[in-house]
Amino acid sequence: MTSWLTDKRILLIAAVTIVLVGLALLRGLHFGIEFTGGTRIPITLEKSVDSTTMSDIVENIKTRANKFGLTQVIVRSVGDRQIYVEVAENNPVFVNEIEKIIKAEGKFEAIIDGRVALQGDDIIGGSIREDPQTSGTDIRWGVSFVITPQGADKFANVSLGKGGYPVYLFLDRIEDAIIVTNSTSIYGENFTKDETDAVINPMLSMSKDTLLFTDGLSKDDIKNRILEMNKTTVVVSEKETELEAWLAERNISFVEKKDAEMKPLLGKGKEAAGLDEWAAIGLLSGPLLSDSLATGRASQQYVIEGQSQGATIDEKKEYALMEMKKIKSILSGGALPVRMSLGSTTTVPPSLGKDFLSYSIVGIVLVYIVVLLIVFVRYRNPQMIPVLVFIPTCQMACLIAILAGAGTLDLATIAGLFASMGTAVDAQVVVTDELFSKKLESNDDAQRRINKAFYIITRDAAIVIFGLFPLLFSNLVEIIGFITAMVLGTLINIIITTQTYRAVAQTMFKQQ
After folding, report:
1. 271-285, 290-304, 306-320: which range is least confident on average?
2. Does residue 67 have a pLDDT over 80?
3. How far apart (Å, rounded) are the C-alpha atoms in residues 155 and 497?
């Protein structure tokens, strides 16, 4: 009876199962906050959006979170109108801060030679457009936008005679802050200390920021200096976990930045060295002002552009695309293309999450055993044990590998796993009844019975799928995981059950 295990169809199913499980383990299994603990904030968009727009919105929210050092925030889309923001934290104060960041639009400023030339309110909403230009192997990136008449007059006055000067583009400029870093993060090899100081000191003075170099200072010295300076905010590297804990204990506001963001990136302007980027203070770009825009003549249409970098055409195109998206996001102040509303947050303590995971694992094992017992007790045929073990094992392994490897395994998905096992019981009962109800007369008789059984189970599966599939587009976030697991599990069950029992039937007929 077990010779069916060597059938090429069975070997293919086993191989696919092993590959899916292996890939899932290599990529890592993703569990929802129900199992890891944390807080989920559901976001609903005012209207459905396409995949490109949804991707931009997700990246925008990630940028907002990362800008404030909230690197542990996970943002993922669900359907075309829903977004989940998840964080491994259930502190109400922290969660409230995340909600503010999600809802708030950034403060955009364009500064030329120490003076504010443009602000977010000066840019007309919806006018920001990507404007790349390609000529052979030469690729230039560009972002065009339209400003108000008042903004045009202000920009003309500030930019007069400043051709070649950097236009510093800030998003949520850090003001009245202490930037805690070491000297090697500020002074590089391409510029002298004097050249660097000539650029960053006026910038720091303008925003009332102060550098605090940690070179040669003890931890206590650093803390005392921070208290003496008495600034409203402290900017620290993500590695300074002990300092962050100390700041939190004293209710001192701080902004966490990645190590790379602490370092100012300098470039050459027409008159002097200029800053290209310094995320630690909110400076995200520093394109040069063209001479044609520095005549003092007011204009409402502007283009920020630059030369793409890269060794190949593809690299230049990728650079241009990334640069335009960055500039576009800065100019829009992080504004989303559609309005959104925040739903009620769901909070799960880590200890309770571990309990949920344990209960779910026990539940899956129990369901698996019950399925085997139901079918075995019904037919009392020891020869069917390998079949009864093979089908649900492959089905559950494939389903969990896909859902936890490519998506997220949450409570709704676990419920879908349980439900999909029910379809497995139905399918095996129907096929086994047809196959073992009476002695097979011929190979054609076996095929006829199998086809009859498969007609029944595929019809039932089609009813389930067509009945549930529309709910995937209902934007009911709480049931998406259940529907996905149920539909996918039903499809996998049909494929595995069909091919397995065909192999079994052919083997049985040959052995009669």
Report:
1. 271-285
2. no
3. 70
